[in-house]
Every structure is written in C-alpha cells, then in structure tokens.
Design goal:
- Helix content is 66%, strand content 0%.
- It is mainly alpha-helical.
- The chain starts with 7 loop residues before the first helix and ends in a 6-residue tail after the last helix.
C-alpha cells in the first residue's frame, strides 16, 4: 500500500496572531479533531468549533461553505491516521497475507476503541461529503488493501464481497465492544479470539491452508 498523501490541513501555515487563511483552516480542523476525540460526533457544530478556535461563528464558512465539508476535513485526518497505522502494520509487502490481515484487523479494532468519536465520524457517510477534500482518495484505498490481501488468501472467491463481509464483521465487533456488549457475552476483555474467529469465518481456518 502506498503511503497516504500528505494532509493539506497539517501542512498549512500555523495560525498566526493575525490569522492567515491557511492557518485558520488548519486551526478549525485541529479544534474539530480534538473536539470529536473529547466529546464525540454530536459536539461537532460549526458554532462550537468556531468558539473553541477563537473566531466568529461565521468564520468557518470562509473555508468550509457547509458543515458537511468541515466534518469531511476532520474525518480526513482520521483516515490519514488509520492509513499510516495500516501501512506500518503491513510491513513488508511480501509478508504472508494471512498474517497481514491479522495485523490489520488488530490495528482496525484498536483504532476504533482508542478513537471512538473519530471512528464513528469516519464511517458516517450520511454526514460527510466524501467526494470532496480527497476523502474518497484516502478511504477507498484502505478497503483496496483489504480486497488485495483477501484475494491472495482466497483466490477462488469474490475478494471484494469477502472483504466487505469481513469489514462488516470487524465493524460489528468494534461497535459491540465499545458498548461493552461482547465483554459481557464472552466473559473476556480480550478481543483477540473474536478477531481470529472472524478471520477463520471469512478466510477459512488458518491451519487448513
């Protein structure tokens, strides 16, 4: 997987005392990232982001004409972070694909649990303008990595369909784990066995390959 493109919000000029346009854009996204981490998606109003950034409530419109575009820029940060973690977890592209999928599954679940607000925002496409701000260019390659690895493990199957089902399974594990439901049902605080079971269900038992 190629390294994710540099994030324009992070590479922009920092906010100065007078406030450059590029700096204000960066500041607004920075504040949004912190806010969703601390208080969740419901806190991401234009007014609250502007207040915490120290600007008028109309100032964000200079860079983000709609609330959805600002949310998309915030979500872009999350996808970039996840893409970096996925790339690091994969390591050498020549590594055994089943092992890479196990590592990626663990990274995905850990990201979801450690960044619950951002994780929720990233996959709320009803809240996002995914065609703007290169959001699709960052999110779709992550799914492409999953499809490619599944195809290497199961060349006999529809890799895209299997990858989608596996992703849905992991997403369900992440969501139910965040709510405490699976810990109660399984009597364990380790999601590792669930991850291995999900991989076996979609890829076949590891010892059979």
């Amino acid at each position: 997987m190629t390294e994710p493109a540099s994030d324009p919000e992070r590479t922009a000029t920092p906010l100065s005392g007078t406030g450059s346009d590029a700096g204000l854009r960066t500041r607004l996204v920075d504040v949004g990232v912190d806010l969703v981490r601390q208080e969740g998606v419901g806190a991401l109003t234009l007014r609250e982001i502007a207040r915490r950034a120290g600007v008028s409530h109309g100032a964000p419109r200079r860079h983000f004409p709609t609330h959805l575009e600002l949310l998309s820029a915030i979500a872009h940060r999350g996808f970039t972070d996840l893409a970096t973690r996925v790339s690091a977890a994969r390591g050498d592209d020549g590594a055994e694909p089943r092992g890479q999928l196990t590592a990626l599954g663990g990274v995905y679940l850990r990201f979801a649990l450690d960044n619950s607000g951002m994780y929720e925002l990233m996959f709320r496409h009803d809240l996002l303008e995914s065609g703007h701000l290169r959001l699709r260019d960052t999110s779709l390659p992550l799914f492409g990595v999953l499809v490619e690895l599944v195809g290497r493990v199961r060349p006999d199957a529809d890799a895209r369909a299997v990858a989608a089902a596996l992703w849905a399974n992991l997403h369900g594990i992440a969501q139910l784990w965040r709510w405490g439901s699976l810990q109660l049902a399984t009597g364990t605080d380790d999601f590792g066995p669930l991850l291995r079971t999900a991989l076996d269900a979609h890829l076949g038992p590891e010892d059979a390959r």
